[in-house]
Design goal:
- The protein is of the alpha/beta class and 467 residues long.
- It is built from 18 helices and 20 strands.
- The strands form 3 sheets. It has a 9-stranded mixed β-sheet with strand order 7-8-6-9-10-11-12-13-14. The protein has a 6-stranded mixed β-sheet with strand order 15-16-20-17-18-19, with helices on both faces. Strands 3-2-1-4-5 form a 5-stranded parallel β-sheet, with helices on both faces.
- The N and C termini lie far apart (55 Å).
- The mean pLDDT is 94.
Length: 467
């Protein structure tokens, strides 16, 4: 939508948290008649901002006022299958995500990153690379979106030379139509959030593929061909025939350079990028994972994806290498907390999927006491069973999925149920011996016990600090 068309448009913003507030303020600034609606309560700080900006609002439910609009903007926390959204769509009212709406105002080059796992780390790492490059070339880099900073908060500060690195979830992509990244990255796609996609993996995967629906021949699409779903999608002749952006695949398992004129791959021990027919070795694999804050094969994938995205916008390999070497990882993702009596405590609260749990188990090479559980999203634990048998000496099960964890893993390892995080940590400490690891890697959402995975991780770290 042309932003000049917003003047006097009636807009309903659904969701009264950070993204919803940011969207409402941006729309109001550009002359729209904004009404914000929140099913639950609204934070007092947000209410103050709404009233200061003279934005009308309601909380505690959705009234008929919601439907008196020209279009609606929804926060990522609002499911696409929510009754309020379904009713708007049934009335042919356009429904946009905050990411889509914010992109109407964006002059910067957008590097959009999605995937089931790895998107936050890849976003943070890509932002660090562009930030370092920008200091030399005179532009700014912004990390926004699902990483925790609403796109709408900063979009008007961005110039044409700047780079917006936008972590983009499937929920945000569900209502994107003209969102057009200069560079799009799909890290991987494995079953997740099936509770919000009618238990249909194809619907979830198709939501991810919306990241490139508006791209054209001047844009770049980076995909991980070691992922089964992405390999299937981008081996399909009809998909490739209709694909508009330049496809740049990455792999740690195959040398892609003979088949693709642009790609990222592992050449022996070297992370290597091929662009415009020229190959460049960036750094050795061991240099990526040889540091305590950045262990695991998954971080090689994340580094390669971020490196290829940067190279697509002509960042030199020296900048890429320096940025990766100085990167210390993302909080709540395989984060070392402390060591007590020879036992390491690792916070992996951001692992809200089975795939993320697999990466954590694969990374740690000592016997593990695993704290797992929370709100199940249709989890299939089959993939992690071999690693659990091999590495996990005990599981402390928490949250709503405790019984499922007992049922799934009870015959292959010791499983103990805990009522609280504090009880879980103390149980784990009793089970772990010198030279072993206590790992919080829930493989589930946090909303049954905590506001978000950050609160869950902070709680774990606080309890461990006080042991």
């Amino acid at each position: 939508m042309n932003i000049q068309e917003l003047h006097q448009k009636r807009v309903t913003v659904i969701g009264g948290k950070r993204s919803g507030l940011a969207a409402a303020q941006l729309l109001k600034k550009h002359g729209a008649k904004v009404f914000l609606t929140e099913r639950d309560t609204i934070d007092k700080r947000f209410i103050e901002k709404l009233e200061r900006n003279k934005i009308e609002y309601e909380s505690g439910g959705h009234t008929e006022r919601v439907f008196e609009c020209d279009f609606a903007v929804i926060s990522p926390g609002v499911p696409s299958n929510a009754p309020v959204v379904k009713r708007l769509e049934a009335a042919n009212v356009p429904v946009y995500s905050e990411i889509e709406m914010s992109s109407w105002f964006c002059n910067a080059r957008i590097v959009a990153i999605t995937g089931t796992d790895g998107k936050t780390t890849t976003t943070a790492l890509a932002h660090k690379i562009f930030e370092r490059d920008g200091k030399q070339k005179g532009y700014r880099a912004f990390a926004v979106g699902n990483i925790g900073v609403p796109f709408a908060d900063y979009v008007e500060e961005m110039s044409e030379r700047d780079v917006a690195v936008v972590e983009t979830s499937s929920f945000q992509l569900d209502h994107c139509f003209t969102y057009k990244p200069k560079v799009a990255v799909i890290t991987n796609i494995t079953p997740n959030h099936l509770d919000r996609y009618d238990n249909d993996f194809r619907k979830y995967a198709c939501a991810k593929y919306r990241i490139y629906q508006a791209q054209d021949e001047t844009d770049v699409l980076i995909v991980n061909l070691d992922n089964e779903e992405l390999k299937r999608q981008f081996s399909d002749k009809e998909v490739l025939k209709s694909l508009k952006p330049k496809l740049v695949p990455i792999s740690l398992e195959k040398d892609l350079s003979k088949k693709y004129e642009a790609c990222g791959y592992l050449d022996g021990e070297w992370l290597t990028i091929k662009f415009n027919g020229e190959k460049e070795r960036i750094m050795k694999k061991e240099e990526v994972i040889g540091r305590v804050h950045f262990r695991g094969t998954h971080n090689v994938y994340n580094s390669l994806a971020a490196a290829v995205a940067a190279r697509a916008l002509e960042v030199k390999k020296e900048i890429i290498r320096e940025s990766i070497m100085s990167f210390e990882g993302v909080e709540h993702r395989i984060e070392f907390v402390r060591e007590i009596d020879g036992v390491q405590f690792i916070n992996d609260s951001k692992a809200t999927t089975v795939n993320a749990l697999w990466y954590a188990l694969d990374t740690i090479n000592t016997p593990i006491v695993l704290i797992a559980g929370g709100r199940d999203k249709g989890n299939d634990y089959t993939k992690v069973e071999p690693l659990v048998k091999e590495k996990v000496k005990a599981i402390i099960a928490i949250g709503e999925s405790r019984e499922k964890l007992v049922e799934t893993f009870g015959k292959m390892t010791k499983v103990i149920k805990a009522e609280t995080m504090e009880e879980a940590v103390r149980m784990a400490r009793r089970e772990a011996k010198q030279g072993e690891t206590v790992l919080l890697s829930p493989a589930c959402a946090s909303f049954d016990m905590f506001a978000n995975f950050e609160e869950r991780g902070e709680t774990f770290k606080r309890i461990v600090a006080n042991l």
